[in-house]
Amino acid sequence: MTAHPLGNGGRLAAIHGWLLLLPAAVLLAAFTHYPAVATFWHSLFTTPRGNRPARFIGADHYRDMLADPIFWTALQNNLVFAAGTILPSIALAMAMALWVNARIAGRGLLRLAYFTPTVLPMIAVANIWLFFYTPDYGLFDQVRGLFGLPAVNWLGSGDTALGAVIVVTVWKEAGFFMIFYLAALQQIPPELGEAAQLEGASRWQRFWRVTFPLLMPTTLFVLINATINAFRLVDHLFVMTRGGPDNATSLLLYYIYEVGFKFWDQGYAAALTMVLLSLLATVALLKFFWLERKVHYQ
Amino acid sequence: MSESVQLTRALVRPIASPAPSGLLADGRIDRLLNTTGAWALGILWLAPLLYAVWTAFHPSAYSTRFDLFAPLTLENFRAAWAAAPFPRYFLNTSILVATILAGQLVLGTLAAYAFARFSFPGRDIAFALVLIQLMIMPDVLVVENYRSIHALGLVDTIPAMALPYMASAFGIFLLRQTFKTIPRELEEAARIEGCGTLGILWRVYVPLAKPTYLAYALVSVSHHWNNFLWPLIVTNTVETRPLTVGLAVFAGTDQGIDWAIITAATLLASGPLLIAFLLFQRQFVQSFLRAGIR
Predict the structure, then answer these.
(1) What CA–CA distance (Å, rounded) separates B52 from B266?
(2) Domain limits of chain B?
(3) Which of A167, A244, B140, B193 has the fewest CB atoms found within 10 Å of its own CB?
(4) Phosphoprotein: is it a keyword of this entry (chain A) (predicted)?
(5) How far are the Cα atoms of A79, A164, B10, B80, B168 from residue B266, in angstroms, in the given order?
(6) A56 beta partners
(7) Which residue segment(s) compose the domain that A214 sits in?
(8) B158-166 helix and B142-151 helix, angle to the nearest 10 degrees
(9) Nearest by CB to A17, which of B107, B118, B269?
(10) Which residues pair with A49 in a beta bridge?
(11) Most confident of A26-40, A104-118, B183-197, B214-228
(12) Closest residue of B to A26, CA-based?
């Protein structure tokens, strides 16, 4: 790439480049970089209240956090939520894409059915599912009633609430991820599968030996997105459970919201946010230094 | 790899077409199983929405009772529309979505052009800093962003909801990829004809990136139409609240309201996007695809 005498290489071009970048850079710095750094700084101070200014307290918030049972519950719930949403939604997305990509009756309608939850607001989805889960009247209990099974308070019982919330999330996400698999599948030359078939490979073998490895980059991309979503999606909790019963469905970001905007303890909320940020940073580092290397074998 | 594909193609085509009869019978069962599985999942996926439609269009007596001859009604929609300031919420959401999109397109275009076609000291570091936002989104920085918005005196305004999302790493990345595929010769031709930096951007790059703009716009609009947590935090009046927050407030506070009306309100809130999606299904799917492939 040679620099154009008047164009993109010289000092003038450098100034132009920075000027073009400036508006976006200012907003990015103000609402992504600054808050990430400020979160750490403010987590070392008490929350200013009335005429009492913020006071430096070092790691006190972090010490409180270690002793805070709700924090541990929320963190544990979030890990269960991540495990319960990531793998099922990826597996379902892959199955959906394989089906919709094959010659199957009613393919267009199927694709529509799978993808529709993606365009609905999570709040709306939560409203609909809340009705589903209603004891006695909801669809679940009506179906159970047909088999003579008793009503269950799906969202009101600590044993089932988190699972119920996970199901809703998988329903919402799988169709979105399907799209990426569909794109990847359409780029695989059919000859590869045909060649494997000629060599006597069964459908199952063909999937695991040919298709699955070729989908690996997509799986990685979807995996990263699903992981970020597992720590970001909390909208449905506001409608369905409010983190209850007894914090059984509280996730980290939801707990941060409660601490920061219901109890107005922003210092402690900043410390909690640091945990969330370090989890996301770990995901980012894993992506760049480990997974990125593993998929480039094809 | 392409060589081996060509080779396989040449080898496979003539032989593969007549499948051995044993395989065919096997394939038929296989196909039946697959079709059944696909449709079982499809019905499971459609059921919640169909159920919502049923509830919303029938009197509440039929909310949980299926009767083919149940009378249809629009009463639930009328009641929901009258019970909460939905017209205002629609307006707020529309303004919000348009503001964010306009900001994202302008800022993203400028920044993407800088990254794609200019070399300046610090460019690669700046680009890496931009990409951080893909991992650490404004969604998780609500505590500090609220502090900033409060300090700026913008709490409970539409700019407050829009500002954190206006510079989008995703948009910048997507447009940069597109700009990089545009031949430099076009730019040089425009330069010879006397176009300045912004003129070239406007006359050469923007028109050629139209499909990317369309794809990005669809993804952005559907994302921000549905966004909830940040708007919930920075708004507290009817005058600024978007639909999602309005819907949550409506469904959350009025315990006396029955399911038929809440469901009608839910469909109202998701309606515009849902209808747009049903009408332009192909474009939606293509857009999400285009936006998702990296």
Answers:
(1) 9
(2) 20-46, 85-292
(3) B193
(4) no
(5) 30, 20, 55, 9, 29
(6) A45
(7) 69-294
(8) 120
(9) B118
(10) A52
(11) A26-40
(12) B167
Q: For residue range A159-207, list pLDDT tens digits in order.
A: 889 999 999 999 999 998 998 898 888 888 888 877 877 877 777 788 8
* Of the partner residues B51, B228, B293, the one whose CB lies closest to the CB of residue A122: B228
Amino acid identity, residue A47? T
Among residues B67, B43, B44, B46, the alpha carbon closest in space to that of B57 is found at B67
* Residue A252 in domain: yes
Q: What is the ipTM of this complex?
A: 0.87
- Provide the token pair at B50: 């169909």
Mutate to test the interface with B, among A6, A28, A254 (most CBs of B within 10 A): A28
**Any idea which fold B85-292 has?**
MetI-like fold (1.10.3720)
Task: Note whether residue A30 is domain-resident.
Answer: no
Q: Using an 8 Å Cβ cutoff, are A31 and B136 in contact?
A: no
CATH code for position A118: 1.10.3720.10
Residue A20 has pLDDT above 60, yes or no: yes
Interchain contact, B247 vs A273, CB within 8 Å: no
**Residue environment code for B159-173, b if the CB has 16+ CB neighbours within 10 A, otherwise e:** ebbbbbbbbbbbbbb
**pLDDT beyond 50 at B16:** no
Cα–Cα nearest to B138, from B110, B158, B168: B168
Residue of A nearest to B63 (CA): A137
Looking at the domain assignment, is residue A268 inside a domain? yes
Q: Is residue A282 part of a domain?
A: yes
B31 contacts on A by Cβ (under 8 Å): 104
Structure tokens at A104: 């199957």
Query: What is residue A204's three-state secondary structure?
Result: helix
